[in-house]
Structure of Branched-chain-amino-acid aminotransferase:
Amino acid sequence: MTQSSELIWHNGEMIPYQQATTHVLSHALHYGSSVFEGVRAYDTPNGPAIFRLTDHLKRLYDSAKIYRMEIPFTLEQLTQACKDAIKQNGFSDAYLRPFAFLGHVGLGINPKSRVADVTVAAMQWGAYLGEDSLAQGVDVCISSWNRLAPNTMPTAAKAGGNYLSSQLISGEAKRNGYVEGIALDTNGLLSEGAGENLFVIKNGVLYTPPTTACILPGLTRDTIMTLAKERGFEVREEAIAREALYLADEFFMTGTAAEIVPVRSVDQIPVGQGARGPITEELQAAYFALVKGQSPDPRGWLEYVND
Ligand code: PMP
């Protein structure tokens, strides 16, 4: 569950949580015209550090570019806003939600102004798929909903409207007693979870769906591919059939909010031994050591709040 903050950065100012509101006729509320990021800051020996903040903010600008939305703040300004949202709320770790949306610009589908309102909220958010998920693994199902089709809604954009698809996928799964739903693309091949990318392990090789499988190219996915290769694992981005999940040795999901979550069953078929597997455990440990500043950070992925 999330626990909110006292202050929210809103169009250049830090304002009280209760005042961070918008008009009911905001364009984004009616048409999904928002772009956003989910970023985590972890408590490290050198104070709070935001993991891959610059990469997340670049993806925010990329998402806005696809929708021809103007973010009237620089990367430096939004970087500082993220750090301030953590510092001024007194958090040592946090989930950050940078968010840009078309606000009170009229109800025409294509308003003249493409200038976004921008907010950055910080909050405390524990393990997204439950406290036990990281060690015990979770039970998932294949969704009856496919992921977005190519050239309909661009999945490389982390846009508000795309999350109607995610709501259908995760809502259906939860109603049926699963922790998460896994979506196939419109070719029937593996795509992604409602809010997570996927890794299948077979005979020591890691497989993950390519960006052509209509996924959000996740930063956690990229981090895990990097950490796995560094440890000598082969990583292949290739099309994956549904049944590969049932026959996998290990299967895990990645996401900023979810982190690295082992999957212990798919459609009630146990994955491997039906528990977190050894490679998943090794990569999970490497990930948490990195984000918490307990291992070297040669790529400068930790961006310290107090710098
Ligand atoms: N796919 C979807 C649909 C998501 O919402 C997320 C979470 N942002 C991811 C994948 C994972 O992306 P990341 O690792 O950058 O958080």
Observations:
- The chain has two domains: 2-125, 133-291.
- The domain at 2-125 is CATH 3.30.470.10 (D-amino Acid Aminotransferase; Chain A, domain 1).
- The radius of gyration is 19 Å.
- The first strand starts at residue 2 and ends at 3.
